[in-house]
Specification:
The longest helix has 16 residues. The protein has one domain: P-loop containing nucleotide triphosphate hydrolases (Rossmann fold), CATH 3.40.50. Strand 3 and strand 4 form a beta hairpin. The chain contains ten helices and seven strands. It has about 220 residues and is α/β, with parallel strands linked by helices. It has a seven-stranded mixed sheet with strand order 3-4-2-5-1-6-7, sandwiched between helices. It starts with 8 loop residues before the first helix and ends in a 14-residue tail after the last strand. About 35% of the residues lie in helices and about 15% in strands.
């Protein structure tokens, strides 16, 4: 297996302020859902390039590190990314499970270098991703994967790029919207929230990426 990408800061530099921020996000998710655990969590962003896949991958690492059985699912059937972050392949994945009953019985899991963390890649990209993601069969697939996991983390296309994220939002317990400091336009973020609210999505909050690091966070405490 290839080495992890430098985007996986929680593996490359677990003592960094950025890694600590992901652990804080993990804690907030776990403690905010004590009464009703979040078992299927969707990640999206207003537009492309805002770090949703990287955020999902790093959070997945921190969850697995506290003995959670984590399955990442690349439901971005337009521009899948998760397999590249972990140096894995994309030959089989979630699309195969929807179309092939044998793949449903024997999910095409790929192990990562982190114990307890597995990937279901996208697999072959369908001509109409929205139809596949909105199908009843996908719900059956998610139920099957839940048998082997404590939490599923689903990567979706950007909210404003396609209807896919809104469709998937109806099939999960919560949604995290990833936005990029200095890049995401306020109107895009607001319109993304409105689009998700139209399908009664449970928006848990937003993750702000690429915030300039304050000098106070680089001192002796983090060394």
């Amino acid at each position: 297996m290839a080495d992890s990408s430098s985007s996986l800061i929680t593996i490359q530099d677990p003592g960094s302020p950025a890694s600590e921020a992901y652990r804080a996000l993990r804690m907030n998710l776990l403690f905010s859902s004590l009464d009703k655990p979040i078992r299927k969590l969707l990640f999206s962003s207003p537009s492309s390039g805002e770090g949703k896949s990287t955020t999902l991958a790093n959070l997945a690492v921190t969850l697995a590190q506290v003995d959670q059985r984590v399955i990442m699912i690349d439901c971005d059937l337009r521009r899948p990314t998760l397999h590249t972050l972990f140096g894995l392949n994309n030959t089989k994945g979630i699309s195969d499970m929807v179309l092939n009953d044998q793949a449903l019985l024997e999910p095409p899991y790929q192990n990562t270098e982190i114990n307890g963390l597995r990937l279901i890649a996208s697999g072959a990209l369908p001509p109409r991703p929205g139809d596949m993601l909105g199908s009843k069969k996908l719900e059956i697939v998610l139920d099957r994967l839940m048998q082997d996991a404590d939490i599923l983390l689903l990567d979706a296309p950007p909210v404003m790029a396609a209807t896919d994220a809104a469709i998937l939002a109806t099939k999960v317990d919560g949604v995290l919207l990833v936005i990029s400091a200095g890049e995401t336009k306020r109107e895009q973020a607001q319109r993304s929230v409105e689009r998700l609210q139209q399908v009664n999505a449970n928006i848990l909050g937003a993750v702000l990426n690429n915030v300039p690091l304050d000098a106070s966070f680089t001192g002796e405490y983090y060394k």
